[in-house]
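Format notes (please read before filing issues)

Several people have asked whether sequences and structure tokens are stored in separate files. They are not. Every record keeps both together, in the order shown below: the sequence lines, then the token lines. Line labels are part of the format and must not be stripped during preprocessing.
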Amino acid sequence: MEIKILEERTNPLLKRHELRFEVAHATAATPTRDLVRAELAKAVHASKDRVVVERMVPRFGTAVTRGEANIYDSADVAKSITRAHILVRNGLKEKEAKGAAGAAAPSPEPAAPAASVQAPSAPAPPKEAEAKPAPEPAAPAKPAEGAEPAKRPKAHPKKE
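Then the structure lines:
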């Protein structure tokens, strides 16, 4: 696996270096994000926890993968700026379970109805009496007398 840095620029506002890179992996499958992070860390002389790979896109039909990564000034800055799902992909944050978020905030229970005594109601009429026959399908509309039917254009006009 061979990594080539295509472009590097500094972003002082976000305290990071933004890289575009290309990985040649002629004899192997597309490398994992973790392996690329380790190789990029070696190439720029930074610790692996400061390197965040934003995206990796393998090129169809070739053994080349292009991508973008950010090298932050510290791991704390990386965790505070980078989006949560990207941190999960890079192994810098644990994935939050959906069930845990729902269990943390219990939903309020509906209030119990007040105990009251109700008089028994009259029995419901049988369902057979309620059944009605299905309506018949409507007949297609006929044109009014004297009106010409709409003409359809020919699909292929004859050539003369």
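For reference, the curators noted about this record: Helices lie at 33-44, 75-81, 84-89, 98-104, 127-130. The beta strands are 2-11, 16-24, 51-58, 64-72.
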